[in-house]
C-alpha cells in the first residue's frame, strides 16, 4: 500500500509538471518574424514578398565597417547615376555662383527657367553690379524671396568687381566672403567650376547621410566633416552629386521608394518607405534633362533589365 501511494503521488507530481510546462509554453511569446532588405535590388523586382519589418544594424558598427559600407553605397550610386552632375545650367563660374545663390528655397528647374533672361541682360559681374535692383527683382520674382536674392546677386557682383577684378575666386575663404555665399554654395562652385573637391551639404544630403547612419550630426559643417572623413578627398564632389540625385529621385523625405532602391541591402532605414516593388516604382521621379520638378509617368519611370532605376530622359 505504501508503494502504491508513492506511485500515485509520483504520477500526480508528474502530471502537474507537464501541465505547468504546457502553460509556460503557452505564455511564452512567439518568436518575431523578421524580414530584411533583399540581397539585391532585383530581388524585389522578381516578385519577392514585400518587407514589413526590418532589423536595423547595431549602432555599435565599427569604424572600419562604417567606412566600407559608406564607400560601397557610393560605388553603387555611381553605377546608378554615372551621369550625375550639377542640375543648374551654367557656362562659367559667375553664372554658377549666381544660380546657386538663387536656388535657395526653390527648385533648380525654376532657377534654370529664370537665369537665361538674367544672364542675357547682365552677362558679366560688371553688368549685374550696375543693374537697377527693381529690374533684377522683376526677373527673379519667379524664384521666390526675390528681393533678398536680388540684393545678394548684386552685392556679390559688386564684391567680385571691387575685390577680385571681376573674376570668381577659386578659394573657399574668398568665396564665403561674397554676399549670399555660404560653404554649401562655395563647394558647389569649387567642385564644379574649378575641379576642387568639396562636399555639398544640402537638405537631401543631410537627410540621406543621417538615414544611412553615416553620422548623427545635425549641423551642416559637422556633417561635412564627419562624412568627409569617410571618403578620400577626391571622391567628395561626385559623392555629393550621387547622394543628392538619389535623394531627389528615389530616397524621398516622406515616402522613400525602398522597394525600388538599388542600395536597399546596405540601408539601415530600409522599410521606412514603400517596399512593394510595383508600388515603389510609381514613386520614382525622373526629370527631363536631369532637371527636378517633373515626374514622368510609366513606362518612362521604370527599373531597367538589371533592376536599377533607368536614367532620366535626355541624360547623356
UniProtKB/TrEMBL annotation:
<keyword id="KW-0238">DNA-binding</keyword>
<dbReference type="InterPro" id="IPR000445">
    <property type="entry name" value="HhH_motif"/>
</dbReference>
<dbReference type="InterPro" id="IPR005759">
    <property type="entry name" value="Nth"/>
</dbReference>
<keyword id="KW-0408">Iron</keyword>
<keyword id="KW-0378">Hydrolase</keyword>
<feature type="binding site">
    <location>
        <position position="267"/>
    </location>
    <ligand>
        <name>[4Fe-4S] cluster</name>
    </ligand>
</feature>
<dbReference type="InterPro" id="IPR011257">
    <property type="entry name" value="DNA_glycosylase"/>
</dbReference>
<feature type="binding site">
    <location>
        <position position="261"/>
    </location>
    <ligand>
        <name>[4Fe-4S] cluster</name>
    </ligand>
</feature>
<dbReference type="InterPro" id="IPR023170">
    <property type="entry name" value="HhH_base_excis_C"/>
</dbReference>
<dbReference type="InterPro" id="IPR003265">
    <property type="entry name" value="HhH-GPD_domain"/>
</dbReference>
<keyword id="KW-0479">Metal-binding</keyword>
<dbReference type="InterPro" id="IPR004036">
    <property type="entry name" value="Endonuclease-III-like_CS2"/>
</dbReference>
<keyword id="KW-0540">Nuclease</keyword>
<keyword id="KW-0411">Iron-sulfur</keyword>
<keyword id="KW-0227">DNA damage</keyword>
<feature type="region of interest" description="Disordered">
    <location>
        <begin position="288"/>
        <end position="316"/>
    </location>
</feature>
<comment type="function">
    <text>DNA repair enzyme that has both DNA N-glycosylase activity and AP-lyase activity. The DNA N-glycosylase activity releases various damaged pyrimidines from DNA by cleaving the N-glycosidic bond, leaving an AP (apurinic/apyrimidinic) site. The AP-lyase activity cleaves the phosphodiester bond 3' to the AP site by a beta-elimination, leaving a 3'-terminal unsaturated sugar and a product with a terminal 5'-phosphate.</text>
</comment>
<dbReference type="Pfam" id="PF00633">
    <property type="entry name" value="HHH"/>
</dbReference>
<dbReference type="InterPro" id="IPR004035">
    <property type="entry name" value="Endouclease-III_FeS-bd_BS"/>
</dbReference>
<dbReference type="Pfam" id="PF10576">
    <property type="entry name" value="EndIII_4Fe-2S"/>
</dbReference>
<keyword id="KW-0004">4Fe-4S</keyword>
<dbReference type="Pfam" id="PF00730">
    <property type="entry name" value="HhH-GPD"/>
</dbReference>
<keyword id="KW-0255">Endonuclease</keyword>
<keyword id="KW-0326">Glycosidase</keyword>
<comment type="similarity">
    <text>Belongs to the Nth/MutY family.</text>
</comment>
<dbReference type="InterPro" id="IPR003651">
    <property type="entry name" value="Endonuclease3_FeS-loop_motif"/>
</dbReference>
<feature type="binding site">
    <location>
        <position position="258"/>
    </location>
    <ligand>
        <name>[4Fe-4S] cluster</name>
    </ligand>
</feature>
<feature type="domain" description="HhH-GPD">
    <location>
        <begin position="102"/>
        <end position="249"/>
    </location>
</feature>
<dbReference type="GO" id="GO:0140078">
    <property type="term" value="F:class I DNA-(apurinic or apyrimidinic site) endonuclease activity"/>
</dbReference>
<keyword id="KW-0456">Lyase</keyword>
<feature type="binding site">
    <location>
        <position position="251"/>
    </location>
    <ligand>
        <name>[4Fe-4S] cluster</name>
    </ligand>
</feature>
<protein>
    <recommendedName>
        <fullName>Endonuclease III</fullName>
        <ecNumber>4.2.99.18</ecNumber>
    </recommendedName>
</protein>
<keyword id="KW-0234">DNA repair</keyword>
Amino acid at each position: 500500500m505504501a508503494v502504491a501511494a508513492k506511485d500515485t503521488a509520483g504520477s500526480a507530481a508528474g502530471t502537474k509538471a507537464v501541465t505547468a510546462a504546457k502553460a509556460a509554453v503557452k505564455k511564452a511569446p512567439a518568436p518575431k518574424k523578421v524580414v530584411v532588405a533583399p540581397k539585391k535590388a532585383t530581388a524585389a523586382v522578381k516578385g519577392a514578398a514585400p518587407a514589413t519589418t526590418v532589423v536595423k544594424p547595431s549602432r555599435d558598427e565599427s569604424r572600419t565597417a562604417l567606412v566600407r559600407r559608406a564607400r560601397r553605397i557610393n560605388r553603387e550610386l555611381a553605377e546608378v547615376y554615372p551621369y550625375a552632375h550639377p542640375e543648374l545650367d551654367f557656362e562659367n563660374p559667375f553664372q554658377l555662383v549666381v544660380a546657386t545663390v538663387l536656388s535657395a528655397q526653390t527648385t533648380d528647374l525654376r532657377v534654370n527657367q529664370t537665369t537665361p533672361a538674367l544672364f542675357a541682360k547682365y552677362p558679366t559681374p560688371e553688368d549685374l553690379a550696375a543693374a537697377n535692383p527693381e529690374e533684377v527683382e522683376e526677373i527673379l520674382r519667379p524664384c521666390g524671396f526675390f528681393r533678398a536674392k536680388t540684393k545678394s546677386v548684386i552685392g556679390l557682383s559688386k564684391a567680385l568687381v571691387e575685390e577680385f577684378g571681376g573674376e570668381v575666386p577659386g578659394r573657399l575663404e574668398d568665396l564665403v566672403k561674397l554676399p549670399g555665399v555660404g560653404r554649401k554654395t562655395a563647394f558647389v562652385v569649387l567642385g564644379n567650376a574649378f575641379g576642387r573637391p568639396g562636399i555639398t551639404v544640402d537638405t537631401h544630403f543631410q537627410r540621406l547621410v543621417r538615414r544611412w547612419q553615416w553620422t548623427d550630426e545635425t549641423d551642416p559643417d559637422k556633417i561635412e566633416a564627419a562624412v568627409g572623413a569617410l571618403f578620400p578627398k577626391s571622391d567628395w564632389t561626385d559623392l555629393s552629386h550621387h547622394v543628392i540625385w538619389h535623394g531627389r529621385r528615389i530616397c524621398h523625405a516622406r515616402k522613400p521608394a525602398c522597394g525600388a532602391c538599388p542600395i536597399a541591402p546596405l540601408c539601415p532605414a530600409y522599410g521606412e518607405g514603400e517596399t512593394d516593388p510595383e508600388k515603389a516604382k510609381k514613386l520614382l521621379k525622373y526629370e527631363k534633362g536631369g532637371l527636378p520638378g517633373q515626374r514622368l509617368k510609366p513606362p518612362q519611370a521604370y527599373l531597367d533589365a538589371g533592376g536599377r532605376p533607368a536614367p532620366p530622359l535626355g541624360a547623356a
